[in-house]
Write a structure and sequence with these properties.
alpha/beta; Aspartate Aminotransferase, domain 1; Aspartate Aminotransferase, domain 2; 7-stranded mixed sheet; globular; binds pyridoxal-5'-phosphate
Amino acid sequence: MDYLEIERKLGANNYKPLDVVLNRGQGIWVWDVDGNRYMDCLSAYSAVNQGHCHPEIVKALTEQAGKLSLTSRAFRNDQLSQFYTSLCELTHSHKVLPMNSGAEAVETAIKIVRKWGYQTKGIGENKAEIIVCDNNFHGRTITIISFSSDPGAREGFGPFTPGFKRIPFGDAAALKAAITENTIAFMVEPIQGEAGVIIPPDTYLKDVRQICDDHDIVLILDEIQTGLGRTGKLLAEEHAGIEADMTLIGKALSGGLYPVSAVLSNTEIMDVLHPGEHGSTFGGNPLACAVALAALDVLIKEKMIENSAAMGAYFLSGLKTLKNPLIKEARGRGLMIGLEFMPEKINARQYCEQLKDNGILCKETHENIIRFAPPLVVTKKDIDYALDIIHKVIG
Ligand SMILES: *Cc1c(COP(=O)(O)O)cnc(C)c1O
């Protein structure tokens, strides 16, 4: 079958994938339709942290699918309470609101925090303001792209949703300066993923936490990519020793088997919602909950978070020995790693194509950065294998 031609002819043109057609996956490995094996160094943008087709998650999915898949929230289901209990125990959050995609979790948080602002801070009608960062990535809906700084994400899609203000990332003083009487929240990624694995200064999140406390504004951390072990901690906020008021998770919450996201919140904020004010037909369905429970269980039980910290450090130190004068920096936390080349000098896409031809799948972000983010089950031997090829192609 001519996959490429059919996709070109019949599919929307909103992606530019590498030309590799996959049909099987196991752990860190995927295979194409011709039987060639590749090491997955993207993990579906960190949705497959637990590795492809983890047998325990597959088992939970198939068993629950044959039992009960969807009740809608018109009725209750037995999996939901277990999902709540597990997430609250693991993250110390008070309350959970289950959704499906990451963008839906972001939208949900925006709705909740706006209502909280009007009810408890007495903000004037339609005046609530949320501060976000330059080069953020929070998803693709109209409201979310309304506060994007990426022209490609916005152009031609207006009119946009008002009520957002953008400041530089990693600059706590800029947050302080941007706060007005109408500010209700600051939403930020602990490490900016799509921007190119941008790690803020060490004190940033601690300072941000303090500023939010001082001004009674809600700190929303978008951990949809950084969360669930990717950076070597369950949540990236732990590196800074802080707790957000609201945390958004998605992607690896299902180990990549099903779209599951959640808003984690303290009680005061979540309790502004009343019946009929928000919902989702599929959000919190028993199949999603059973899959997420298994995905969380194996993440903890198989020590994938600890492995992410150890293997991430090992991978990064190997990348730092690459001898290529066009490399600007190799940086990362846990298995969230970025390799940045001098801008204008190099087309990272070319390296991704060459790595693919040599059995490593990864994806450029912007023109000059390659992200390395293998599943968290990767071993030292696997990383040596990858580093060998990366040195051959890039070093
Ligand atoms: C992927 C991502 C989203 C959006 O998630 P979708 O499931 O694609 O809607 C939001 N925020 C961050 C940080 C992400 O990486």
